[in-house]
């Protein structure tokens, strides 16, 4: 026996509870829902005293799949992965075969574009962008006269 919850606590719906529940179940399907969600990796951006850190969550890729380019002050991270055909296998269902994304970041003037490093570990791409010497936090004590 299957329990179907109608109305989800909403009252006075002009379209009726069945209409909403049918489309909610279709749109919340994990396969279809995943296809509707943009395939852009999540990013964390942090600033320390000496550098900027950009981390992108890109699991399932290899280092060879990633491409990092710098054009003027625009840093672009992109990837393209194609699933290889497997000889001798007959798939009854195959839902993945191609994955690509591109994200661009405008670097601030304080970033040293000649000192950018990239490291890919455990599905996280970490970009470290050094700051120019004059842009580093400088602290000093100011005497009161």
Q: Could you describe the 3D structure shown?
A:
The protein folds into 2 domains: 1-37, no CATH class; 39-135, Immunoglobulin-like (Sandwich). Helices cover 12% and strands 38% of the residues. The protein has helices at 17-27, 30-36, and strands spanning 43-47, 51-57, 66-71, 74-82, 98-106, 111-121, 124-131. The chain has a 4-stranded antiparallel sheet, with no helix packed on it. A 3-stranded antiparallel sheet has the order 3-4-5, with no helix packed on it. The longest helix has 11 residues, at 17-27. It is elongated, with a radius of gyration of 24 Å.
What is the assembly state of the chains in this entry? single chain
Secondary structure class reads mainly beta
Gyration radius, in Å: 24 Å
Mean pLDDT: 77
Please list the strands of the largest sheet in the order they lie side by side. Answer: 1-2-7-6
**Biggest β-sheet, characterized?**
4 strands, antiparallel
Low-confidence stretches: 29-37
Distance from first to last alpha carbon: 83 Å
Q: For the record, what CATH class of the largest domain applies?
A: Mainly Beta
| Count of individual beta strands | 7
Number of helices: 2
Strand content: 35-45%
**Gross geometry:** elongated
**How much helical structure, as a percent, in the residues?**
10-25%
How many domains make up the coordinates? 2
> From the 3D coordinates, which CATH architecture of the largest domain would you assign?
Sandwich
N-to-C SSE string, H for helix and E for strand = HHEEEEEEE
- CATH topology (level 3) name of the largest domain: Immunoglobulin-like
Pfam families: HSP20
Domain CS: 38-141
Protein name: Hsp20/alpha crystallin family protein
Organism: Mucilaginibacter dorajii
């Amino acid at each position: 026996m299957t329990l179907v919850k109608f109305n989800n606590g909403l009252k006075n719906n002009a379209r009726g509870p069945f209409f909403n529940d049918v489309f909610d179940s279709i749109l919340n399907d994990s396969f279809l829902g995943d296809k509707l969600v943009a395939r852009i990796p999540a990013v964390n951006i942090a600033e320390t005293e000496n550098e900027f850190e950009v981390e992108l969550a890109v699991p399932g890729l290899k280092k060879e799949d990633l491409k990092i380019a710098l054009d003027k002050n625009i840093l672009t991270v992109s990837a393209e992965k194609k699933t290889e055909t497997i000889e001798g296998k007959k798939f009854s269902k195959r839902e993945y075969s191609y994955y690509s994304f591109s994200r661009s970041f405008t670097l601030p003037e304080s970033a040293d574009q000649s000192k950018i490093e990239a490291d890919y570990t455990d599905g996280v791409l970490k970009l470290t962008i050094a700051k120019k010497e004059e842009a580093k936090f400088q602290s000093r004590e100011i005497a009161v006269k």
